[in-house]
Amino acid sequence: xxxxxxxxxxxxxxxxxxxxxxxxxxxxxxxxxxxxxxxxxxxxxxxxxxxxxxxxxxxxxxxxxxxxxxxxx
Length: 73
Hints:
The chain is of the alpha+beta class. Helices cover about 25% and strands about 30% of the residues. It contains 2 helices and 4 strands. Strands 1-2-3-4 form a 4-stranded antiparallel sheet, with no helix packed on it. A hairpin with a 4-residue loop joins strand 1 and strand 2 (about 15-20).
């Protein structure tokens, strides 16, 4: 079931970064997210609900304005 707020997401296992792209175009990189959390999100019925319960306010994040912007560390 597609989420109403999350357009896409991806996980970088080497960096342990979970990237969430919202329908609004905002991009958030959540730091130090265990791979198990990503797997649980993949299997979650509602990505938005899972995000709100298990990721939001629980991990440090970096925010990017939109999915087209490039960032440099």
